[in-house]
Amino acid sequence: MLGQLPPALQRLHLPLRVKLWDGNQFDLGPDPQVTILIKEPQVVTQLAHPSLDQLGSAFVDGKLELEGDIGEAVRVCDQLSEALLQPGHDTAPQRVAHDKQTDAQSIAYHYDVSNAFYQLWLDRDMAYSCAYFREPDDTLDEAQSNKFDHLCRKLRLQAGDYLLDVGCGWGGLARFAAREYGAKVFGITLSKEQLALARQRVDEQGLGDQVELQILDYRDLPQDGRFDKVVSVGMFEHVGHANLPLYCQTLFAAVREGGLVMNHGITAKAVDGRPVGKGAGAFIDRYVFPNGELPHLSMITAAVCESGLEVVDVESLRLHYARTLSLWSQNLENQLHRAAALVPEQTLRIWRLYLAGCAYAFTRGWINLHQVLAVKPYADGRHDLPWTRDDLYR
User: 83 or 199: which carries more pLDDT confidence?
Assistant: First the structure.
């Protein structure tokens, strides 16, 4: 029997064409912008109640193909899910204990894909976090350099300061802080691939006397207040809700009195920190960030305050991250042939959906990005911060 679409799907009006394995095709609107090519009959039954997790998994497994712009495909698939998905589809995730071994495995899964693969679509410094667009037409290189400078300015970084970089990635921020601000930097990561390239670039730029990078779990950081400033970019998403108090206490103990702590990371829309709905959160957990847990802004600020730190500044960069991810996605789409030679086909499919899907999620406000600056007050409650933000924008 020739394939047919579920009746509910045929009644929709979307800019979507559906092609079936047997040659049948159906236009769900007058001007299709995206085509879903279904390769296996069982996928058709999923289209009756299509969660983003189901659609994404079918794409990753090669059971369906997406034709057209990947960003537009994500938007149309969300409309499809919105129209047909039953309420109450999402269930609470099964959280795991974030011990050192589990976190190391999760980090290795995500970050040890291939340095060359990441180089295809990141900026020249390989900053794998939200950029900062001072002007609408800033390039990705410019915006990531802006982000480094924005963080250093908020930390009021000075020559000779000892900066702790928690989750240092490929070392772009550490090198910037050393080169442009004269800081001494100690950076930690759990990714062996990141560390190797980060150390190579430190040596190439002659910064070995200022920058030290190590494989180290945040729970093993020195607790003697030796650091003047602490910066943590894209890190607290990997800590787990249950470990946020320990994480913040560890940063509190690592920084001196009067020192500043900057947390820059993705935050949840829901106050309870539950994942993005329609199955998108489940897809991310399964394929992209295993065991990642996004805290709500109130959750991370509560943990910061309970540790003894005082929150002094909060900034949302949600739309900055939407633009960052969109540029990453465009870069990857422009390099698909080269990317296919560096990673397995399934991995490339995951990353294509992940980058385009997250750009869409930030644009829609499903998730956010916050920079939370805190100070460790002196014993008498004083701190050395200026009375206004004017110095940030001079």
Answer: 199
Beta strand pairing status for 211-215 and 184-189? parallel
Catalytic residues, by residue number, are 358
SS3 assignment, position 44: helix
Neighbours of 220 (CB within 10 A): 11
Q: Under CATH, which number does the domain 7-84 receive? A: 3.30.1050.10
Measured CA to CA, the distance from residue 367 to residue 361 in angstroms comes to 6
pLDDT attached to residue 95: 67
Amino acid identity, residue 336? L
Q: Dihedral sign, CA of 115, 116, 120, 123?
A: positive
pLDDT score recorded for residue 326 = 97
Output Rg (C-alpha) for the chain, integer angstroms: 22
Q: Reduce the DSSP state of residue 183 to 3 states and report it.
A: coil
N-terminal to C-terminal alpha carbon distance within the chain: 70
Q: Please state, as a whole number, how many other Cβ atoms lie within 10 Å of the Cβ of residue 223.
A: 12
pLDDT at res. 114: 86
CATH class given for the domain over 100-393: alpha beta
Residues shown for the chain: 394
Residue range 286-341, pLDDT digits in tens:
777 677 789 999 999 999 999 999 999 999 999 999 999 999 999 999 999 999 99
What SS3 class is residue 248? helix
Q: What is the DSSP string of 149-178?
A: HHHHHHTT--TT-EEEEES-TTSHHHHHHH
Task: Determine the Cα–Cα distance for residues 291 and 106; give it in Å rounded to an integer.
Answer: 7
Nearest to 26 by CA among 48, 54, 52, 4: 4
Q: From CA 319, how far away is CA 3, in angstroms rounded? A: 42
Per DSSP, 297 falls in state H
Are 278 and 82 contacting, i.e. CB atoms less than 8 angstroms apart?
A: yes
Between CA 44 and CA 58 the distance in angstroms is 11
Q: Which two tokens stand for residue 267?
A: 């935050």
Q: Where are the domains of the chain?
A: 7-84, 100-393
Judge whether residue 352 has pLDDT over 50: yes
91 burial type by CB count under 10 A (0-12 exposed, 13-18 middle, 19+ buried): exposed
